[in-house]
Each structure stands twice: as C-alpha cells, then as structure tokens.
Specification:
Pfam families: Thiolase_C_1. This is Acetyl-CoA acetyltransferase. It comes from Streptomyces pseudovenezuelae. InterPro entries: Thiolase, Thiolase-like, Thiolase_C_2. The structure is a single chain. The protein is α/β, with parallel strands linked by helices and about 400 residues long. The chain has twelve helices and eleven strands. The strands form two sheets. A nine-stranded mixed beta sheet has the order 3-2-4-7-1-8-11-10-9. Helix 6 crosses helix 9.
Length: about 400
C-alpha cells in the first residue's frame, strides 16, 4: 500500500488489576496489562514492533520494553500528563498508516495509591519549581488550586453553579454503580458532594478524582492484521492534539480548554460531527474538566455546560450522551495519567462488551461512534481520538 494509506484499528484492550493493589510494582502492572491486551487481540507478542509508554523510570519506554520482553523498532515516550495516551494513539496511528510500524502497544501502570499508603517519597513528589513553574510555586499555587481557579472563572463568567458541577460527580458515580471494577460504587447526591470537606474552593472532596493503583494497555494494528485478531476492530477515524500553556498567566481564557482545538481537529479529520457521537470518555480529574470539555468538544455551547450536565445527560441509564461510562476518574479508578483508560472503555463500549453499563441504541445494538478526550497538566494539553466500528 502507498505510505499513509493504511487504516488503523484497535484490536486489543485490557486493564491490569486496579483499585487497591498492594504488594506489586508499576512494572508488574505494565506487564499484566500488556499480556491481557495481547490475549484480547489474539496476536502473538512477536508481531508487536512499536511501544509507547511514559510515567515510569528514567528511560521509558526502553525500561518497559525490556521488562515486557519487546524489542520495538518504533517508540514514543511523549509525556503531557493525562492526555499522553490520546496523543500517543495519534502518533501510533500516523506511524502505522505511514508503514513505520505494524502493531503498536500503548501501556501504562502505576501504584499511585500504594505509594502514598506506604509513605514512599515518589507518591508525593511535586512537579518541581524549575523553568516557568518557579514563578508560581512560591505562592503555593498547587495543581488543584489551578483547576479550582479555572472553575471559579467559569462560574463568574457564565453563571455555572457548584450544584451543576456536583452533578458531574453524581452521574459519574451512577455509572460506576454499574461497573463491578469501579473502586467506588455507592450512590451519592448533590448534597453529599456539597457537604464534603473543602479541598480548594469551589471543590470539595467529591469534586476531585480518586487515587488508585492500576494499569491499562491498548494495541493498535494495521488493517491487514485485523483478520488475524479474535476481536472485532475499532477503527481510529481521526485524532487531534494541542498544547496550550504551562504558566497560568499564559492561558488566554480559563473557560476554554485545549480540547477546543484537539477536538475540532479530530472531528474534522474523522469527517464526523459532535452530534453524531454516541458516547464520550472524558478526562475527569475534577468535575470542571468534564463540564468545560463537553463545551469545547461541541456538545453544547460555551457557557452552557452547567445546564447541559444538570439534566442527567451523562448517565448510561437514561442519558442522551453517556459520559465516562465506567465511572471515570471520579469513581472508577485514577492511577495518575488516566488517559489510556478512556480508550479502553470506549473500545469496550463500541464492541458491546461493557456488561451492565453497556450503552445501546434504540434497537439494542452497540453504539457506532465514540470520542475519547484526555487533558494533561492543568489544562496544559489535550488529545482527542474519534473511534468507530
């Protein structure tokens, strides 16, 4: 085939053990997720000639490749926080389409919760105070404070209420209740969210993602390998990536996330309109992330996110745009850079393999189009991937 002409599919997805996972290492979780994803696809490890990983060790992905027994001829270690995996998926799809790789494994593992529990220094390291951050760190401007400040700006400019933000957490938990793998499944109410301990105004505890252990893996392959796989392909239709800022002073508008650019690019390249999407997996380290990303992906107008989410639209049961169908980072799992979990859940939904939380069309069939959009840093970067079966 001419370079750039090959279609690209995701044929293997898997989670490692997630939630409370003591007595293991991030490397073991990488290996567990990788084995499960390859088994899911039904492809031999020897066919994998590309590897993408970040967040572990000093020589990722070389260390991970060695640990899982791969010798890739194409690698990617792009690290842009939570959006890393959507950006890596875009790079992998481009490489496969161009003939630079045939099968690329994206893999991640983290013991973020266990590190805190055991008092390991790695569990509480900051982003540091070098480079541009040196101008904000002395004032105690933490990551969560940056998100909280952005949320407050949206509330001031558009009248968004804390109750509307709380609805994001409530509906994520409703979806998690259907997911046996979710870390927290008990129902919560808006009042529960509002009554929690204040973390960074306007965020109480339940506005914030959980901290868990876990891992995930996704295998992308060229179209000619699809016939050898045991699973139905989910095609990568379009991708987009964008880097906005690091310093808050360089962020032009706190009410616009980088998904406004990455989403537009992904939809244009896929030839798909937002209104055609049947479910969305959105990075949700905080409730505001979900709300503003919904706006910037075009599911509602700017400033309309609050009224959009308060109508119960995000739930699997009864929602017209199910979002974070596994419960998201707010309830299911969040072991650090969670973007890879978005792709796993989107693929499972498109295959019709999501069990009690399965999104269905009116005729009972599985959905045909999904979007996964990851955010990194404090709205510093975004990667968006449109998927279809």
């Amino acid at each position: 085939m001419p370079p750039g002409s090959r279609k690209v599919a995701i044929t293997g997805v898997a989670l490692a053990d997630c939630g409370r996972v003591d007595g293991t290492t991030p490397y073991a979780l990488h290996a567990q997720a990788a084995r499960r994803a390859l088994a899911d696809a039904g492809l031999d490890r020897g066919l994998v000639d590309g590897l993408a990983s970040a967040g572990t060790g000093t020589l990722a992905p070389a260390e991970i490749a060695e640990y899982v027994g791969l010798r890739p001829t194409w690698v990617d270690s792009t690290s842009v926080g939570g959006s890393t995996w959507e950006v890596m998926a875009a790079h992998a799809a481009d490489a496969i389409a161009a003939g630079h790789a045939n099968a690329v494994l994206l893999v991640y593992g983290s013991t973020a919760r266990a590190d805190i529990k055991e008092g390991r220094r790695t569990g509480t390291l900051s982003f540091g105070a070098r480079g541009p951050l040196q101008f904000e760190v002395p004032y105690g401007h933490t990551l969560i404070a940056k998100y909280a400040m952005a949320a407050r700006r949206h509330m001031i400019e558009h009248g968004t209420t804390v109750e509307q933000l709380a609805q994001v957490a409530v509906q994520a938990r409703a979806n998690a209740a259907l997911n046996p793998e979710a870390m927290f499944r008990d129902p919560i109410t808006v009042d529960d969210v509002l009554a929690g301990p204040m973390i960074a105004d306007p965020f109480t505890k339940l506005h914030c993602c959980i901290r868990s252990d876990g891992g995930a893996a996704v295998l992308l392959v060229a179209e000619e390998y699809v016939r050898d796989c045991r699973t139905a392909p989910v095609w990568v239709l379009g991708t987009g990536e964008y880097v906005s800022h690091v310093s808050m002073s360089e962020w032009p508008d706190f009410t616009v996330s980088p998904a406004a650019v990455s989403g537009r690019l992904a939809f244009e390249r896929a030839g798909v309109r937002p209104e055609e999407i049947e479910l969305a997996e959105i990075y949700d380290a905080f409730t505001y992330m979900t709300l503003v990303t919904l706006e910037d992906l075009g599911f509602c107008g700017k400033g309309e996110g609050g009224s959009f989410v308060e109508k119960g639209r995000l739930t699997v049961e009864g929602g017209d745009l199910p979002v974070n169908t596994d419960g998201g980072g707010l309830s299911a799992q969040h072991p650090g850079m969670r973007g890879l979990f978005l792709l796993v859940e989107a693929v499972r939904q498109l295959r019709g393999e999501a069990g009690a939380r399965q999104v269905t069309r009116r005729d009972g069939s599985a959905p045909g189009l999904a979007v996964a959009s990851g955010t990194g840093g404090w709205f510093c970067s975004s990667g968006t991937v449109v998927l279809g079966r």
